[in-house]
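User: Sequence in, structure out. Go.
Assistant: Echoing your sequence, followed by the structure tokens.
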Amino acid sequence: MQVKFNAFSLSHKTAPVQIRELISLDDQAIHSIHLKLKEIFNLSEVLILSTCNRTEVYYSHEETINEEIIKLIGLEKGISDVENYLEYFELFQNDLAAIEHLFRVSVGLEAQVVGDIQIANQVKRAYQTSVDLDMAGPFLHRLMHTVFFTNKRVVQETAFRDGAASLSYATIELIETITSNTYQPRILLIGLGEIGEDVAKNMVYLPDSKVMISNRTISKSEAIAAEMGFEVIPFENVEEAIDEADVIVSSIQRNEPFITKELISQYNIQSYKLLVDLSVPRSIETSVEEVPGVILYNVDNIRSKASEALDNRLASIPQVENIITEAIRDFQDWKKEMMVSPTINKLKQSLEQIRLEELSRYMKNASEEEYAVMDKITKSMMQKVLKVPVIQLKNACRRDEAEEMIEIISDIFDLDRVKTDKN
């Protein structure tokens, strides 16, 4: 039975965040599921991708076992009724659909923010896990390296990754630009709602910064700080932290400004203080700009930059899809050639066996020099005999006629009697 490449996905397009959180897999769970898939289903090629926006499994197997793997995930997560969540999963039950989905996810076409570069790195880490656990065979190796090369082409040939297309990442890009000449800039993030938390997670792109976070609910601050390595500032001490910080990002919800001109005027600003207001309604008084050294950006300033970048990315999508189509076509050609590879090997072994038998029969009394000459001549003859059927097999692959050609050549040369040499 022919091995098929399958996949299933639970993502922001198919499931709300509370379901995605429930199914999400940490590194330990991914490691455990890999090993169980090898043990229970004898799988040798598996890729498991789990991020805040998606949990996906790609695998090679003779049968489609999506539901069985989803139930295994349920057991790993302690979800006894995981079958009730099957409706949230998107299933890809043929090679081409699964392969195309992996390409689209990897380049960022399926990301919540189109073109998000983080997903490419997450896919690389998922692949590395498969390699480390010896769960990547020739098919997956070739597929993933084709995906990585495609990503490189997208970066080099299109504007799909240009600019910051999300509000949170545009904020990070702004901070990076303004603090570029500051050694270990001190950044204070106030408020950890949806936007604030997203900004916090993107702070990984500012590795030289000292990041402080403050939230009314300190437990949330502590959870994020533990994950990201940030310093927690109790909310009642936030004004002292504002004084220390070079950059203050505010995303708290209030009916009136939290950071006022009066408050900022109390501080001795040595060179600059960047204030970024991501709140709606605004939490930073616009008049703070009147204080010497203060730079203020609000959510509209940043969103306009993000929208411009997003427009450029959207305009690049047709070009990106063309690159993916080319890559998949090349990969499919390789995959089809892999299909005929066992037949080619059997044909080579069959002809080599005939050659050696005939040499043994007619060259018993030949000298070493005579044997060497005949060995060279017969090898050359076999290579010429092989050339035509090998070319025909490869051409048949491109015409999707490989199975018929395999059958014809197997019958002509009686290849069913030939055992493939595994050494």
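User: And one key feature?
Assistant: The chain has a mean pLDDT of 88.
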